Amino acid sequence: MPHAHDNSIIISGEALPVIDMPIHDHWREAADRRGFDITARVADRYALALTCRQCGKLSRTRLFVLMHHQPRCSHCIEAAWRQEAAAAGLTFQRRDPASTAYAWYRLPCGHDARRQIGLITRVAAGETGLRCATCQEAVEAAEARAVGWELVGPDPAGDTNYREYRHISCSHQQRIARGNVKSQRFDCAGCGVTWTAAPSFIYLFRVLLPSGMRVLKLGFSKNPRSRLQHQLLGDGDLACHVLRVVAMPSGHDAIRTEKGLHTSLRRRFPDAVIDAKDFAGALTVVTEVYAEWLEAEIQQLLDGIEDDSDDDGA
């Protein structure tokens, strides 16, 4: 039986006893071919302490691996991980003892995160991005607070586009698409009213298309600026101006009035209707876009709607 002397070798922080048994020449030849030197036999009769000729550090390798495969130096591997992390803008912290596929990294924001090593390789190569879950949660929580809600957590149904939120004013919880929270296009199922009963607006926007053509978009929305910023523009770099916003008592009144406007404009000014192919990709709609020269007529119609609304409220 092999026996251990009092001396030992420290490998990766672990003290391994040196085993007093012969190191055969054909083992040394195999190590030489693979870029290592055999320093000692350690722990048991089938384990070797190898010195890497590239970094000069020790690693533990099974005899079978040395004779039949290319041993890998754990220190060189970790050095490569550190370089990849630096290239990705991160700091390698430590390996994950629970999985060889994961490690812990310090993100640019200062938070530590457990990530797949292969993912960091892709980030370093510019193939994908990386975001901090802690910071992202803070961003989403701030978005929710801005509209009177609290972020509770991930969607119970597992949809990554949704989150669970709590309405601050009534404590009702519901799952809502994050995009709808940002654009404020949702209602509280506990205390809110539906969009058909909630106050709404008729809007008139002017948009400068990439072609240089200026067009008008006439429509209705509970939140016209949110509609403009988050939904209407297929190209976020387009120049767009809010020309007019007319308050309506409810979404029902807004859609009824808007449909009447479009019916009248299409019948009286068919040449002013812009073909969808002229703004494809620039706007997310396919209808209800008009030539800029129709603005005075539309403004006059909106004047009438506003006057009627004032008379009803008098």
- Write the element-wise H/E pattern from the N-terminal end onward: EEHEEEHHEEEHHEEEHEEHEHEH
- The dominant shape is elongated
Oligomer: single chain
Classify the beta-strand content into a percent band: 25-35%
Mean pLDDT, nearest integer? 85
Strands ordered across the widest β-sheet:
1-2-3-4-5
Instruction: Assign a percent range to the helix content.
Output: 25-40%
Biggest sheet, open or closed, and with what strands and sense? Answer: 5 strands, antiparallel
How many β-strand runs? 15
What structural class do helix, strand and pairing data support? alpha+beta
Radius of gyration, in Å, reads 34 Å
Number of helices: 9
| Straight-line N-to-C gap | 105 Å
Low-confidence stretches: 1-5
What number of structural domains do the residues give? 4
3D architecture notes:
The protein is of the alpha+beta class. The protein has four domains: 4-72, no CATH class; 75-124, no CATH class; 139-183, no CATH class; 200-313. 33% of the residues lie in helices and 30% in strands. The protein has nine helices and 15 strands. It has a five-stranded antiparallel beta sheet. A four-stranded antiparallel beta sheet has the order 14-12-13-15. A three-stranded antiparallel beta sheet has the order 6-7-8. α3 (74-87) crosses α4 (117-124). The longest helix is centred in the last third of the chain and has 19 residues, at 295-313.
